[in-house]
Amino acid sequence: CAQFIRYVDWLLTVPLMCVEFYLITKKAGAKQGLLWKLIFASVVMLVTGYFGEAVWRESSVLWGVLSGAAYFYIAYLVWFGEVAALANTAGPAVA
């Protein structure tokens, strides 16, 4: 039960952090599509992580790989994808 409550909390707070991050990057020209990519990837990361930890433990490695892939997709967007391109375009004060 505690695991479930923890994941419910994360399902509320992590997408809110994505919204906050988007609002910060919007000043540099971020499009709304970035927001939805971040929210979708964060929900996939959390739901698949929960499945691997609490629901289908016998295939936890598979769920962990899926959760990790969503996490690394978010990291890619920030460090090498759309957010990095926005930072480079905005100039040295932002990058």
From TrEMBL:
Keywords: Membrane, Transmembrane, Transmembrane helix
Protein name: Putative microbial rhodopsin
InterPro entries: Arc/bac/fun_rhodopsins
SUPFAM superfamilies: Family A G protein-coupled receptor-like
Gene Ontology CC terms, in alphabetical order: membrane
Subcellular location as annotated: Membrane
Flavoprotein found in the keyword field: no
Predominant location: membrane
Membrane topology per record: Multi-pass membrane protein
The UniProt record lists the keyword Chloroplast: no
Pfam families cross-referenced by the UniProt entry: Bac_rhodopsin
Transmembrane segments: 34-55, 61-79
Family: Belongs to the archaeal/bacterial/fungal opsin family.
